[in-house]
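Quick illustration, no need to memorize.
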Amino acid sequence: MNNKFFFLVIGFLFATLVQAQTKRPNIVVILADDMGYSDLGCFGSEIHTPNLDKLAGQGLKLTQFYNAGRCCPSRAALLTGLYPHQAGVGDMLQNDSLEAYSTHLNYTSVTLAEVLQQSGYHTIISGKWHAGNEPEYWPTKRGFEDQYFSNGTTGHYFGIAKGRQYVVNGKEVDVPGPWIKSGNSEYKLFKNEDGSQWYATDAIADHAIDFVKDFRKEEKEKPFFLYLPFTAPHWPLHAFEEDIKKYEGKYLIGWDSLRVQRFNKMKSLGLIDPSWTISPRNENVKAWSELSDSAKTRNDRLMATYAAMIDRLDQNVGKLIESLKATGDIDNTVIIFLADNGGCHEQVSKGAANALPGTAESFDGYEYGWANVSNTPFQWFKHWAHEGGTSTPFIAWYPKLIKAGRTSSATGYIAAIMPTLVELSQSKYPTEYKGNKITPTVGQSLVPLFKDQKYTGHSLIVWEHEGNRAVRKGDWKLVSRFDYKNNVELPWELYNIANDRSETVNLINKNPEKYTELQNEYSAWAKKVQVVPYEQLLSLRKSKSAKTSKE
């Protein structure tokens, strides 16, 4: 080979490498908070979500994708590619002085931002962090360069609740204005620069858009990673009246009828097997027909507000997409959407007496009845390891790679986001980071699935959160709830998810060998990730509290 030809070859290879680097995709991960499996139009809902529906229609829907069942654990798994306990977030950021139960993401894990930043990405978070509340654990300490909104949440959609922090780019901002007392809640109202009413969902999207625009003024080619964890539709239920009015009155049909309506739509969309049955109304929910007229009216308003919050979230997704078109980024951007857990049953009502739900004076959740609708057709809710607590709608959009209009029932787990983005970004998951040995990721990249290639899926997924336990292996799932009144683990239940994903027929007595097999899988996993049985954990906390009070 003569020298001239040799240098031509080297030049070509170098140019190809540079071109490949510059064409690495931008990445947007959108996370909804406390949104149920059936709450998007494209997943069976009556709620108007045209922008997310369009992404789904032009991309890929996964019908058997799982989160970790609650806020902090899911965020830990998404950000690190590990099971929550491996990242130090076995519970809700409590200081238990245990390796798997900490106040923050540990340092044997790396975040998506840390990995992608080292690979040459600009990293942005706009929204809810909730993976370490103290300043030394905030997003800007874990790889994010631009950050807006809060280490957790403002606790109010029209401003900030007392006791919450408002954090921008790693610095707490002192918010001016008087505190407003409303029932058992206290808050400050925010205004936008033009004097209009500030709203959290809008602000999260607007700052994300501004971060990208400002970045693009300086960097025309460098890729970015945007993590967009909305607080919506987590309580308190607050929304603009114009959005609520779209839905008010539509929910007077009641939760019993609406569950059936969604169930039928889900079957027609091919999201669920027609042979599955809808789970029975939850034991904590009255039949809609038994409610008084005033209770029906109030519940209609609650659900209309919840729907309005999802509607507004979708509006902001649309606004983001238009902005990415304006910056010239849309054709080279991967968009992934999912939720951190199922619909939330939590009974929250601490606003002013008789405050109209949805207004700033109110502070409500939509409770068991509507959460049962959100999780159609599944059992239970956020917090639990049954399908209603851990199933999420999942949308992936990237026309360069993903064929439009696909739906897959392949099994996936939230920890798969890390290896997926590592592969798409041509990054490297480290074995060491800042002098710490890093735990290998447990997730499986979804890229083969995106390419419509053979994909084995996650053959084994395991959960534990505050005593709620589950293991899914193939088509079988072993699951148990925790009895918080008596502080004991309830008996295991066994379901064949292929035949009965609604978990209505407990097969544990008919399949003792499968029960033993899955119980052994759970025990081995729990030992590996250092799960402490919840009854024991509560005892440790009680002892620690008693010792502290004596000191």
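Confidence is low (pLDDT under 50) at residues 5-21.
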